[in-house]
Design brief:
mainly alpha, 3-stranded parallel β-sheet, 7 helices, 11% strand, globular
Length: 170
């Protein structure tokens, strides 16, 4: 798993950067995950691998930035794709059909009350690939609707109301 999740990223940067260094510019975008920031979003191997991707992105960005090559990563949150069904052992066609079933569940788990879409990640990648992000290097762009930021404000306020009620009953 580490060979694929981290080794693949390293090999992609190694080979992609050769051309970019020669031309004196380029943008490498690695795929990390919210699991690389917080526990509970994948098993320990996956989480460790994605944390490694985030950190190696930063370290390689320091090296390649001097040659005009920017290196950043994107950490998706819960994005509506068939990956969740496939992880549960579903066939490709069944996993494809399972995506809509997750829409409401994902919408309830982050401050922005909608499920993440593949287009959200694509737009982040376009930003990092273009000159619009020309001064962004060594950054992990988390695209998760606020998922790893913590509990939503309404949920926190409701919890505090509950605590106040318990304390005032005594």
């Amino acid at each position: 798993a580490m060979d694929v999740l981290v080794g693949g990223v390293l090999m992609g940067m190694k080979h992609g950067s050769r051309v970019m260094k020669r031309q004196g510019s380029g943008s490498i975008i690695n795929c990390a995950s919210v699991a690389g920031h917080r526990s509970g979003f994948g098993d320990h191997i996956y989480s460790a691998a994605k944390a490694a991707v985030i950190h190696v992105t930063r370290t390689v960005a320091m090296e390649l930035g001097e040659r005009g090559v920017r290196v950043n990563s994107i950490s998706p949150g819960a994005i509506l794709t068939p990956i969740f069904g496939k992880a549960m052992g579903m066939s490709t066609s069944d996993a494809d059909g399972s995506v809509d079933k997750l829409k409401d569940v994902f919408a309830d788990h982050q401050p922005i009350p909608r499920a993440g879409l593949p287009e959200d990640i694509a737009q982040a990648a376009v930003y990092l690939a273009t000159d619009a992000s020309g001064f962004v290097n060594g950054h992990d762009l988390t695209v998760d609707g606020g998922l790893i930021g913590g509990r939503g404000w309404s949920e926190t306020a409701e919890g505090m109301r509950h605590v106040a009620k318990l304390l005032n009953e005594g």
